[in-house]
Amino acid sequence: MPGAQFAQLDESIHALTQELPRDIHQQFTRLLQKSPLAIVPVVNGVCTACGMTLPVSLVHQVHAAEHIYQCPSCARLLFHRASGARNTRKSPRRSDPPKVGIERFSAESLMIPALKGTDRDAVLAELCQKLDDEGFVDDAGKLLEAAEQREAIISTAVENGLAFPHVRCVEGGALTFALGIAPKGIKFDPAGKANTRIIFFMVIPTAASAFYLKLLSGLSQVFQKAENREKLLEAETSEKMWKALVKATRLAIS
Ligand SMILES: [Zn+2]
């Protein structure tokens, strides 16, 4: 009877939790109240919850696992990926490699090669809906509202037909962006020209704010170059767009 098994599991969890040192117990309970992700793996020296690059010494400490360590940015408890559940596989070498570079922040499924909208809000709505449809956010409507409020303060459109709309202070999840192309160009900045064609829509968890700046500077650096913009604009499918993005950012975003 599954109900009884769950009750038993709850009881074991409760018993184990009681054995934790008092401060860790309190920390763990506090984290759980905020998000079900209280304990997260470190992959390639990065906290997989908030995206912070951890100090090398901390990565080694987590690996050695003599004590319990927290991410300095999001405070979650950390464990070394290889010492986690994955290690029990028979052939760990065949397991998927950890995501690297731009793959940590986006995916082929988040590329829109031809946005249908002809104005800023319609385009923002499409990008929000994409993030929702693909399961990266829960509430496209709320996200759109926050994005529009952000644009009202000051436009995120920049030179060369690029725009970086974003929503900060998203609870949980990871730093993620969807990318859309407006083939004919739209007037993203009410005071600007109707020439915005490449739109990166970013969702920024509170804890990943510093990491966001790094991603933003990497992307804007890469796409200041006309050839990189052209490769993106030429892509007719999500697959080609994603390939162009991965290739262009390979050296700039680690
Ligand atoms: Zn973290």
Which CATH architecture of the largest domain is right?
A: 3-Layer(aba) Sandwich
- Mean pLDDT across residues: 84
Global outline: elongated
User: What ligand species are in this complex?
Assistant: zinc ion
The total count of strands amounts to 9
Helix percent band: 40-55%
Cα separation of the termini: 48 Å
In terms of per-residue confidence, which ranges show pLDDT below 50 for 5 or more consecutive residues? 83-94
Alpha plus pi helix count: 8
Q: What is the CATH homologous superfamily assignment of the largest domain?
A: Mannitol-specific EII, Chain A
Largest sheet: 6 strands, mixed
Reported by name, the CATH topology of the largest domain is Mannitol-specific EII, Chain A
Task: Report on this structure.
- The protein has 254 residues and is of the alpha/beta class.
- It folds into 2 domains: 2-94, Helix Hairpins (Orthogonal Bundle), CATH 1.10.287.1490; 101-249, Mannitol-specific EII, Chain A (3-Layer(aba) Sandwich), CATH 3.40.930.
- The chain has helices at 2-19, 22-34, 56-64, 120-133, 140-153, 209-222, 226-234, 238-249; strands spanning 39-43, 46-47, 77-80, 111-112, 157-158, 162-163, 166-170, 176-186, 196-205.
- Strands 4, 5, 6, 7, 8 and 9 form a 6-stranded mixed beta sheet that branches. It has a 3-stranded mixed beta sheet with strand order 2-1-3.
- Strand 5 and strand 6 (162-163) form a beta hairpin.
- The longest helix is centred in the N-terminal third of the chain and has 18 residues, at 2-19.
- The chain is elongated, with a radius of gyration of 21 Å.
- Mean pLDDT is 84; it is low at 83-94.
- Residues 47, 49-50, 52, 71, 73-74, 76, 207 line the site of zinc ion.
